């Protein structure tokens, strides 16, 4: 009978249509988009299963899927189907993330591991039901909240100073253990746990944003060094989202308005430009500026664009790096400061003239002038406050001066400074003792003599940060200015320890110069390794 049926000689039986392949209404659209037959069928299966709808995937995801060969595309869709999509809000971006992870695994020769334990979904669901927060999962992070439910917080988005960084997190730990700990400090705006797409585990760190600064500070006190699991202690500190870029190689003839106009053409979200003028010629800037953007994200985008080499400003490629983030000092500490920072001074103003001007408001401990700015130390805060009130914005020898309270020293910044200086010295020693197998020879800069026994790097890339950012190498009085300047305590014993042949024993180097390394007695080095400084100043997430 079977043979007769095959040959068509037997009685005709009805066809079994139960196993017939069914497609969704979008199957033909997938074929017309250029997907191979099997890939279109696999994606259509996912549609029919209700895991994702056709409208969830944009053209970018479909085009990216077409770039894979058939086997690779099927593997990507299988991994996408097996993923937990219950907390994924942007499924199109998630699919693109799966494709990116697949390519990374392909390059590394690794396979998807089924042994890595993900979050306990029952505990995650119980957490979300209790708090009313949402959870958005991508291949790179898990975002809890942001914004929180109105029952928890109905105010505006938190400002700078409300975010903390959490490090040393066990890799298999998730929101069900983190949230109960951190919500003790206050209302959480969002918690972002960084994920490793290759392993499916977290990267060991997270960011928690609170609704108030007080809650963030309380979280540091409560949670830093907390034993979150037996033998596992986490580290917690305030996170400063950097939105400021350092830009060098700026034409010195350009004004602030011209710089704003030029950079606004090639970047988005520019809020302000901080520009410093030459002390002896207020019509010229010092060849660099700081760009402030709306937030860290726009600053990071601007940095990538300016560093690409494709964007030119006034026909030139500029030097771009992160500026050190300016952290707000403790208000209780600032309330005790007795030192004023005075800027925009005329070059003709002397320390004696400043002492005469400010001493009428109270007894002074000392006055120190550096170029067009100075630090005025009062014995009592009341005197400093009176001087600030009376003299700020007033004219002194033809210039309107600006006065604010100086910031206390940043110990971490000093440590970074010392580390950079030590690394700089080591590189010079390696070059002169062992030759230049791994670096170019130093370029020569223009030396400039100085008096007073102190020296400071002036116009190199690193020098911009030293002179305007943050430390005047040998002037040590214990305070910093609120614009990012800093100093420690003047030590006259350093006289005569600069480069030989420079009057006063100090070396003020232009170009990309640095202080001569110790131990090279009799050798004068006035240049610097201009090519090795870029890339050392990164601050922030991108």
TrEMBL record:
<feature type="region of interest" description="Disordered">
    <location>
        <begin position="498"/>
        <end position="542"/>
    </location>
</feature>
<keyword id="KW-1017">Isopeptide bond</keyword>
<keyword id="KW-0492">Microsome</keyword>
<dbReference type="GO" id="GO:0005654">
    <property type="term" value="C:nucleoplasm"/>
</dbReference>
<keyword id="KW-0508">mRNA splicing</keyword>
<keyword id="KW-0963">Cytoplasm</keyword>
<keyword id="KW-0677">Repeat</keyword>
<keyword id="KW-0507">mRNA processing</keyword>
<dbReference type="GO" id="GO:0005681">
    <property type="term" value="C:spliceosomal complex"/>
</dbReference>
<feature type="region of interest" description="Disordered">
    <location>
        <begin position="1"/>
        <end position="23"/>
    </location>
</feature>
<dbReference type="InterPro" id="IPR012677">
    <property type="entry name" value="Nucleotide-bd_a/b_plait_sf"/>
</dbReference>
<keyword id="KW-0687">Ribonucleoprotein</keyword>
<feature type="domain" description="RRM">
    <location>
        <begin position="162"/>
        <end position="241"/>
    </location>
</feature>
<dbReference type="Pfam" id="PF18360">
    <property type="entry name" value="hnRNP_Q_AcD"/>
</dbReference>
<keyword id="KW-0694">RNA-binding</keyword>
<dbReference type="InterPro" id="IPR041337">
    <property type="entry name" value="hnRNP_Q_AcD"/>
</dbReference>
<dbReference type="GO" id="GO:0006397">
    <property type="term" value="P:mRNA processing"/>
</dbReference>
<protein>
    <submittedName>
        <fullName>Synaptotagmin binding, cytoplasmic RNA interacting protein, like</fullName>
    </submittedName>
</protein>
<feature type="domain" description="RRM">
    <location>
        <begin position="338"/>
        <end position="408"/>
    </location>
</feature>
<keyword id="KW-0256">Endoplasmic reticulum</keyword>
<feature type="domain" description="RRM">
    <location>
        <begin position="243"/>
        <end position="325"/>
    </location>
</feature>
<dbReference type="Pfam" id="PF00076">
    <property type="entry name" value="RRM_1"/>
</dbReference>
<dbReference type="GO" id="GO:0008380">
    <property type="term" value="P:RNA splicing"/>
</dbReference>
<keyword id="KW-0539">Nucleus</keyword>
<dbReference type="InterPro" id="IPR000504">
    <property type="entry name" value="RRM_dom"/>
</dbReference>
<dbReference type="InterPro" id="IPR035979">
    <property type="entry name" value="RBD_domain_sf"/>
</dbReference>
<keyword id="KW-0747">Spliceosome</keyword>
<dbReference type="InterPro" id="IPR006535">
    <property type="entry name" value="HnRNP_R/Q_splicing_fac"/>
</dbReference>
<dbReference type="GO" id="GO:0005737">
    <property type="term" value="C:cytoplasm"/>
</dbReference>
<keyword id="KW-0832">Ubl conjugation</keyword>
<keyword id="KW-0007">Acetylation</keyword>
<dbReference type="GO" id="GO:0003723">
    <property type="term" value="F:RNA binding"/>
</dbReference>
């Amino acid at each position: 009978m079977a043979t007769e049926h095959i040959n068509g000689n037997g009685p005709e039986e009805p066809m079994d249509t139960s196993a017939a392949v069914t497609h969704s209404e979008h199957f033909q659209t997938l074929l017309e988009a250029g997907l191979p037959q099997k890939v279109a069928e696999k994606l259509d299966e996912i549609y029919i299963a209700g895991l994702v709808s056709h409208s969830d995937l944009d053209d970018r995801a479909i085009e990216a899927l077409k770039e894979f060969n058939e086997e690779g595309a099927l593997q990507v869709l299988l991994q996408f189907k097996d993923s937990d999509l219950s907390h994924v809000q942007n499924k199109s971006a998630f699919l693109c993330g799966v494709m990116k992870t697949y390519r990374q695994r392909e390059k590394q020769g690794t396979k998807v591991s089924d042994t890595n334990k993900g979050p306990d979904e029952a505990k995650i669901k119980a957490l979300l039901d209790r708090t009313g927060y949402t959870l958005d999962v991508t291949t790179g992070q898990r975002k809890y909240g942001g914004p929180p439910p109105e029952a928890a917080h109905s105010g505006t988005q938190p400002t700078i100073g409300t975010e903390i960084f959490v490090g040393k997190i066990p890799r298999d730990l998730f929101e069900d253990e983190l949230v109960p700990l951190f919500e003790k400090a206050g209302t959480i705006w969002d918690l972002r746990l960084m994920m490793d797409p290759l392993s499916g585990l977290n990267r060991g760190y997270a960011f928690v944003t609170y609704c108030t600064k007080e809650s963030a500070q309380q979280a540091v006190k409560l949670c830093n060094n907390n034993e979150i699991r037996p033998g596992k202690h986490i580290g917690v500190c305030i996170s400063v989202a950097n939105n400021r870029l350092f830009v060098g190689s700026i034409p010195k003839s350009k004004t602030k308005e011209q710089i704003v106009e030029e950079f606004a053409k090639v970047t988005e979200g520019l809020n302000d430009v901080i520009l410093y003028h030459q002390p002896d010629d207020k019509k010229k800037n010092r060849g660099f500026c700081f760009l402030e953007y709306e937030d860290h994200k726009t600053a990071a985008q601007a940095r990538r664009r300016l560093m690409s080499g494709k964007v030119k400003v006034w026909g030139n490629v500029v030097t771009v790096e992160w500026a050190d983030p300016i952290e707000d000092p403790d208000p209780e500490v600032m309330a005790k400061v007795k030192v004023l920072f005075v800027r925009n001074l005329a070059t003709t103003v002397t320390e004696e003239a400043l002492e005469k001007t400010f001493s009428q408001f109270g007894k002074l401990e000392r006055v120190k002038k550096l170029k067009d700015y100075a630090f005025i130390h009062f014995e009592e805060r009341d005197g400093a406050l009176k001087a600030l009130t009376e003299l700020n914005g007033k004219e002194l020898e033809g210039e309107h001066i600006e006065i604010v309270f100086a910031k206390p020293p940043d110990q971490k910044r000093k440590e970074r400074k010392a580390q950079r200086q030590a690394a700089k010295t080591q590189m010079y020693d390696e070059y002169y003792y062992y030759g230049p197998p791994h670096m170019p020879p130093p370029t020569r800069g223009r030396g400039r003599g100085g008096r007073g026994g102190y020296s400071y790097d002036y116009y190199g890339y690193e020098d911009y940060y030293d002179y305007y950012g943050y430390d005047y190498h040998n002037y040590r009085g214990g305070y910093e200015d609120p614009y990012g300047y800093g100093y420690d305590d003047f030590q006259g014993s350093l006289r005569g320890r600069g480069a030989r042949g420079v009057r006063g024993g100090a070396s003020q180097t232009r170009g990309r110069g640095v202080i001569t390394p110790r131990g090279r007695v009799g050798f004068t080095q006035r240049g610097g390794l201009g090519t090795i400084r870029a890339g050392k100043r990164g601050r922030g997430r991108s």
